[in-house]
Amino acid sequence: MGDYSHQMKSRVRRLLHYAESSRRTKLGIGAIVRRAARWLELRSFGLTPEHFTGAEGLRAALAVAFPLVLIIGSRQYEFGWAVFAAFWTCLCDNAGPDRLRRFLLAVFVCAGTAIAFVGSWVGSFGTPEALATGPLLVFLSALLPYRLAQAGTLSVLLGVVGVVAIGFPLPFEGAAKLALSFLLGSAWAYLLINVLWRIDAWLPVRKMTSAVFSRLSDMIAEMVATRDGSHPDAIWHPGHAEHRRSVRIGLERLRQLLSRYKGEPDEVLRPFLLFQDAAETLFSAAIALEHDFVVREGPANERVVAARAMLHAVVTCQMAIDGGERGQASLRRQIGRLQRSRSVMSGQLPIGCLIAAEQALRLLVNDPETERSASGAPLPELPEAAKTGLKSALQQALRQASGVVAVYYVATVFRFGYPYWATMAVIVVMQGAARMTWTRALERIFGSLLGGAAALSFLLLVTHPYALAALAVPLAGVSIALRSVNYTVFVLFLTMLFVIVTELLQPGVGIASARILDNTVGSLAALLAALLLWPKFDPPLATMIGDGMQTNRDYIDAVTSGRDETAIYAARRRAGLASTTAEVALHDLGGLPRRWQRLSNEDAAALRKLRLLAGEAAAAWHRRLAAEERSGT
């Protein structure tokens, strides 16, 4: 038990050291990564180190290594599609319960085999047939999310299989062998994932839950590091909005991830719902206490004491995710410390924040009679795994098909060596909203440029097939391990992998440069299609700020009018989402709009007012908690 307590104190010290170094701009590696992650996240470029999956990377390396070594050793290069199929199957395996993952992977194996055969065979009939079949396969694949929930990645990868198969035109026998190669490679990867090397399906949930508490601890550690709240800007410090956005985005990601597990056994799912609810409660308390640091409503020493106590509470929650009985004992000790801390306080707001923190910790203490959330409201229901509406699915399918047609035309006119790389880029880059497509296009172009240059350097130095295979195997593993960490980094290693494997199985001239050019053309085509065909643009910034102001006023009204906790929780989440949306909109399209038009003084003032109003809304709720305890209600 002593070791566990020592670990917790050590973690708190590291967090405070990071917060101090951030304020002094003397940043270590951890501080640099955290700051870069928040900066990129605000601009829609994700950097989430907590999503690194080393075990999945090792498994993917094995999945690719087995067929690759067999093909090189036997010189049966016509079975090279087994390598791509194994990698794509690993890429298709997203977070979720085992039953969902098995089903989606089985669909990919079966449908992908059929699509590979049809695409390759029909492509051999001639250019007109290929130009018609490729977009048709993409169109049908893009409609899949209308019928199947959580099928986004499956849909994209089936479209990729279709356009790549068109690029390998073969007669009936050759197309059948290509499809057999795909079946063998994907079936091997399916067997490896679901039977031979199973990874805990709940691992992504634990990591995401821990990441939420990690973001929250960064927020509170910075408050502790301010001592008495004397920032250079006494009214608002930029770090406040930065941390609020970070935690809210993390909470919403956790919520979306948990929705994939809806219907799983309650004894496994419920603890994570409790952690999610506890994080929401602690986050609201942190915003309220942060507001106290800004407006300095009560004694300065009480603010710092309350922030330090909450930091220990958040770190305890994070360690309790995998702590077992030791974690439970630590939670109980922290509850006692929170009670002692608030017993010597006089300020209403710090007391209310510590009451909320105590409620959050009590929620996580194992008690068979605990059936309600931290505030007494029922635990929030997870949303149903939504399927894409027919209209949205049709629009997205037509966008992708149109982009593929345009790229086929350009590739034919300019005689691209590997046109399927360009059509592949269209499918993976095109997102629902123009902003998301823009950022994904930039990431793919940049990642392809770096990856192509690195691959070219390797190919100049390494030529032996087994040496190239020795490079390709770890690249496959790193690509899968980093796929959810950052898209640019993922594309960098993915480009290196595909260039090297193509050099092994289909030697040619200018493979690396072709990959760069094709990805650039495909990404730009996807962006044009997203902008020209049913474009989805965000509302003006002023409108978003107005929505944020209104939702926070509704939150305050829900608190002061005496509504029940369920209504208050719903109003709190709406206010948090609206505030975060307005903040992110300021930096839309990677900050380019700010280069064309500076943020108006009115909008800047409105954003500042929105931030303060959000803090006042959270403070109102925690003052109510303190008042209710004093009155004994």
Q: In words, what does this structure look like?
A:
This protein is mainly α and 633 residues long. It has 25 helices and no strands. 49% of the residues are buried.
How would the blueprint of this fold be written?
Elements lengths: L1 H23 L4 H14 L11 H21 L6 H12 L5 H26 L3 H16 L1 H4 L4 H15 L5 H25 L6 H23 L12 H22 L6 H30 L4 H21 L3 H20 L4 H17 L25 H25 L4 H11 L4 H28 L3 H18 L4 H19 L5 H22 L8 H20 L4 H21 L6 H5 L4 H31 L2
Oligomer: single chain
Percent of sequence in beta strands? under 5%
N- and C-termini, Cα separation: 36 Å
CA-based gyration radius: 27 Å
Q: N-to-C SSE series?
A: HHHHHHHHHHHHHHHHHHHHHHHHH
Fraction in helix:
over 70%
**Largest sheet properties:** none
The SS-based structural class is mainly alpha
Tally the helices: what do you get?
A: 25
Approximate shape = elongated
Quantity of strands, as a count: 0
